Automatic annotation (TrEMBL):
SUPFAM superfamilies assigned to the protein according to its UniProt record, in alphabetical order: Inosine monophosphate dehydrogenase (IMPDH)
Alphabetized InterPro entries for the sequence: Aldolase_TIM (IPR013785), NMO (IPR004136)
UniProt keyword list: Flavoprotein, FMN, Oxidoreductase
GO molecular function: enoyl-[acyl-carrier-protein] reductase (NADH) activity; nitronate monooxygenase activity
Top-level EC class: oxidoreductase
The EC number(s) this enzyme carries: 1.3.1.9
Name this protein carries in UniProt: Enoyl-[acyl-carrier protein] reductase II
Organism of this sequence: Stakelama sediminis
Gene3D superfamilies linked to this entry: Aldolase class I (3.20.20.70)
Length: 343
């Protein structure tokens, strides 16, 4: 390593120190929790490569999560976390499973945590990370005692909000980064972007799409090929058909499955009109649809009718390669960018 590269690496190390200390890792990169993709193999690979893998619990039952955590522990002795969805009907039992395994970090996603969940997670000894798609929510979560925040913009894959990553970072980092570790997510595909957010005060970043085509990812070969061939503009958000339905936009590669989701919304809206289901059941049906559609694409390789959830950084996914190589490339790019800024 030449002196210039060494200086850039040193600057990067200093900027990531807070995030690394919080996560217990070599690099402050969280793996985005992607249902069916972020399972034991990819999670362990990210942690073994110096990052922080996160299990996507999604719609798992407590027994399934129990087995997944145990399976991940068999593949790595490095720190990793578990992502739980706030609307999961068995959230309390899932938290108990994390406590049983002494999971060090729990990531809560899907809106404001329900009553008692924050206290239960903190009582287990785990550090709590929550998503903050707006300044008001960031401050509310901080008052509630969360240990870190993820600021995720609309460029991300899967469920997304309405504001871009760059705008959220500018709005939130200057206000709260001094008080709590903040990880930036959404549309990050290269190290230069990581360097930029670290310079703005972020403790680290979260990447999902970039890891889908990792060699260690169990995603179907057809799913990976769709990522490698796609451009940023092909990753589009779903449309909400009925304003009554609690439908959070989902970003995915456009295919026939996009139209199938529109039809599913009409079906659920009609059931609401006819009084066959309550609003809570309507929301669960929508979530279960996404879980099933995503599985068809990721596991079965049905990239025409399944859901190919992908962030706009998908255009920067060029090939299948090991997680360690992906992280090394990102770190080299970030170090080089920081070195140039010092000149």
């Amino acid at each position: 390593m030449n002196e210039q590269a060494s200086t850039g690496a040193a600057r990067l190390s200093r900027r990531m120190a807070r995030g690394c200390e919080f996560l217990g890792t070599d690099v402050a990169i969280l793996g985005g929790a992607m249902s069916w993709v972020s399972e034991r193999n990819l999670v362990a690979a990210i942690s073994n490569a110096g990052g922080f893998g996160v299990i996507a619990c999604g719609a798992m039952t407590p027994d399934l999560l129990d087995a997944e955590i145990a399976g991940t522990k068999a593949l790595t002795d490095k720190p990793f976390g578990v992502n739980l969805i706030t609307m999961h009907p068995d959230l309390t039992a899932l938290i108990d499973v994390c406590r049983k395994h002494a999971v060090g970090h729990v990531v809560l996603a899907g809106g404001l945590p329900p009553a008692g969940s924050i206290d239960a997670i903190k009582a287990s000894g785990a550090k709590l990370i929550c998503f903050a798609p707006a300044m008001a929510l960031a401050k509310k979560l901080m008052r509630s005692g969360v240990d870190a925040l993820v600021v995720e913009g609309m460029e991300a894959g899967g469920h997304v909000g309405p504001v871009s990553t760059s705008v959220l970072a500018q709005e939130i980092l200057p206000e709260v980064a001094a008080d709590i570790p903040v990880f930036v997510a959404g549309g990050i595909g290269r190290g230069e972007a990581i360097a930029g957010y670290l310079d703005m005060g972020a403790a680290g970043v979260q990447l999902g799409t970039r890891f889908v085509c990792a060699t260690e990812s169990i995603a179907h070969a057809h799913f990976k090929k769709a990522f490698i061939r796609a451009s940023a503009r092909e990753a589009v958000t779903s449309v909400q058909v009925d304003p009554r339905l609690p439908v959070i936009p989902v970003r995915a590669l456009k295919n026939a499955g996009t139209e199938l989701f529109t039809a599913k919304q009409r079906e659920v809206a009609q059931a609401l009109d006819e009084g066959k289901i309550a609003m809570a059941e309507a929301q669960l049906q929508i979530e279960h649809y996404w879980a099933g559609a995503l599985r068809r694409a990721v596991i079965d390789g049905d990239i025409e009718h399944g859901s190919i959830m992908a962030g706009q950084s998908v255009g920067m996914v060029k090939k299948e390669e090991p997680v360690a190589d992906i992280i090394a490339s990102l770190m080299d790019e970030a170090a080089a960018a920081l070195e140039k800024r010092a000149m």
